[in-house]
Each structure stands twice: as structure tokens, then as C-alpha cells.
Design brief:
- Strands 2-3-4-5-6-7-8-9 form an 8-stranded parallel barrel, surrounded by 5 helices.
- By secondary structure, it is of the alpha/beta class.
- It is 31% helix and 19% strand.
Length: 335
């Protein structure tokens, strides 16, 4: 059966609400290469917030000095020059410390935080630091920690988080600290993180709900908020997307509704441009908008920042009212 999604102009409907539609960002991957003209094309398409990395092993030399040579280490300058901003993800190790594995020792942990603070200081366009990337998953953790359990990962993550938070705040106190960066909505692992006390030292929690059906997002987030320390935590979905190209525009729009009702303040679509993994991009390699990109632009113009209310007529027909005059409704066609 085919999903139906509609956005309607709703005359005369208004409601006072605390919830607002999240702002939009894009996972840009400029840290792995900066295609010519793509940044300008993204900004022309209305994309003004990027999620990206400046990889540690590319900028810190054997003498401990930081140098920014290749374009993929200097691109945040251009982001700032174009009047836009970005969040910086820090996750990877460096060959100078523990053979490039995920840091576990005191020296490597301190160096990990120093890198984040140095990059944040070098590039004023960085408004947030996202610490870790899917630390609870089978990927993105290396070395001895990879074969240890989630309790060990939680303790190791907490040490890295606090090293980054302490040093970034000393260098640029206005930069927001985004923590966890978890795959899915893993309440068990988040409880282990809660036990370390780090939730009190982050400004927002990031998660990537790839395996959560959008219609269930608000219910799963409600369960997540039962974890100690998360009841009032600001939330960001710093990666979401789909491999179903035709369904991508609807997926993005439905997520705007359910993320807003979950209290999510920022959404970052993955990816900005084709990554070779089958996920639907916002732009082609030539910089043209895809159907997902056009949906993103529409959401950026009409939905972001608007007050949101749940106006679902029944459990089978989710609906959101954005501001005074836009209602989004979806469901299955009648038999």
C-alpha cells in the first residue's frame, strides 16, 4: 500500500504551544573532501547549518603543532565567510596516540579534548561540538575498547566527553556541547551513560534513530526521557535519512512533525550529497536539488521555528499543525 502525505493550508486554526518545529542542518562530509561549488550550491538551496568534522590526524603534527593545509581541513573558514555555521563532530583517534585507536589512556584522552578545543578556537563558524559518533554501535570504535562491553564503552565515552567539554569551554565558553551521539534510541546504554554523571555537563543529547519508524518516534523518545537526567534534556537528531529515494521527501516531512512533538530542536539530514551508500542526498554531485532537497527547502521556508501541535484525529492518522495555517497529515489509504 502507498503512503499518503499532505500539507494543507488550515484557515482559522490557531493554538498556543510550547513545542516548535526543529531547525534543519545537513551532514556535509566536507572533512572528507570539498567538491567544487557544492558549498555555494547548498547555501543557495537554503542549507545554512552543517554537521561535519576536521579530522584530528590531518591537523596535529608530530611536534604537537596544529596546521591546516588541505582544503578539507580549512573548509570551516569558507562556511564562516558565507555567513553560515556548523557543528563539529569529534570521534576518531590519531596515530600519535595509542596507534590511532579510540583513546583510553590519560595522555590520549587529554589530547583528544585539546584537538576539539584547538579546532573550535581556529574556526569561529563552529557553534557546537558533537562528541562521539554512534559509540554504542559496531562501528566508530577501535582498538581494545571495541571488544569490551557497553559499560566499558560508557565509561570510556564519559572520559572523552569531559576532556572535550572542559577544554572547549575554557577556550570558547559559548560553544554548545552535544553529547552521546548514539545510534538508535538505546535506553540501556543511555542509562549506563547516566550513571557516569555526564548528562549534567552537556547542553544537548544527540541520537540517530535510523531504526525507529517515524510514527513511533515520539513514543520512543518518551521512554528515553525516563532515563535519569534526560527528562528535560534538549535533544538533537544529528543524522537521519533513508535509502528509499522516492520516499525521502515524505520521510523528511514526517520527521519534522514527529521530531517537533518529541521536543527535538535540530535535525541534520544525512547526506548532503551522494556518499555511495545508497542514502538519498539533498543535492546531486553537480549541486542540483533532489526531491529530498526540495522537501528540505520547503520545510526550511514554511515549518522551521513554527509552533507545533498534535492535531491527529485518530491513532491511524498522524497530523501536526505548524503555526496558524499549515497542517501536515498522513496515513494509509482506505481499503
Amino acid at each position: 500500500m502507498r503512503w499518503i502525505l499532505a500539507m494543507l493550508l488550515s484557515a482559522g486554526i490557531a493554538s498556543a504551544q510550547d513545542l516548535r518545529a526543529p531547525t534543519l542542518a545537513a551532514a556535509s562530509n566536507f572533512g572528507q573532501g570539498v567538491p567544487r561549488g557544492l558549498m555555494q550550491a547548498a547555501i543557495a538551496a537554503g542549507i545554512t547549518d552543517f554537521r561535519d568534522a576536521v579530522y584530528w590526524d590531518l591537523v596535529e603534527g608530530e611536534d604537537g603543532r596544529f596546521r591546516y593545509g588541505p582544503a578539507r581541513t580549512r573548509y570551516p573558514d569558507r562556511i564562516g565567510q558565507l555567513g553560515t555555521g556548523m557543528s563539529l563532530t569529534v570521534n576518531n583517534g590519531h596515530a600519535l596516540y595509542e596507534d590511532g585507536a579510540t583513546p583510553l589512556g590519560a595522555e590520549a584522552i587529554a589530547a583528544f579534548g585539546r584537538h576539539a578545543a584547538q579546532v573550535a578556537t581556529r574556526f569561529p563558524a563552529i557553534h557546537s561540538i558533537e562528541i562521539g559518533n554512534e559509540f554504542n554501535s559496531a562501528n566508530f570504535v577501535s582498538g581494545p575498547l571495541r571488544d569490551q562491553g557497553l559499560a566499558a564503552r560508557a565509561r570510556a565515552y564519559a572520559a572523552l566527553h569531559d576532556s572535550v567539554a572542559r577544554q572547549v569551554r575554557a577556550a570558547r565558553p559559548e560553544v554548545r556541547i552535544i553529547g552521546a551521539g548514539v545510534h538508535s534510541i538505546p535506553t540501556g546504554y543511555l542509562t549506563l551513560l547516566s550513571d557516569t554523571g555526564i548528562f549534567a555537563r552537556m547542553d544537548a543529547l544527540a541520537f540517530h534513530p535510523y531504526d525507529t519508524p517515524v510514527t513511533l518516534l515520539d513514543r520512543q523518545v518518551a521512554l528515553m526521557r525516563q532515563v535519569p537526567g534526560l527528562a528535560a534534556m534538549p535533544l538533537e537528531i544529528t543524522e537521519f535519512g533513508t535509502t528509499e529515494m522516492d520516499a525521502a521527501p515524505g520521510h523528511l516531512m514526517r520527521m519534522m512533525c514527529k521530531a517537533a512533538l518529541s521536543g527535538v530542536t535540530r535535525l541534520a539530514w544525512y547526506p548532503l550529497h551522494p556518499r555511495g551508500d545508497g542514502f538519498a542526498p539533498l543535492l546531486t554531485r553537480a549541486g542540483d536539488q533532489t526531491p529530498a532537497g526540495r522537501a528540505y527547502a520547503l520545510a526550511q521556508r514554511r515549518l522551521t521555528g513554527q509552533p507545533v501541535a498534535d492535531v491527529s484525529p485518530d491513532a491511524a492518522t498522524p497530523a501536526c499543525l505548524f503555526g496558524p495555517d499549515v497542517t501536515m497529515v498522513w496515513g494509509l489509504p482506505a481499503p
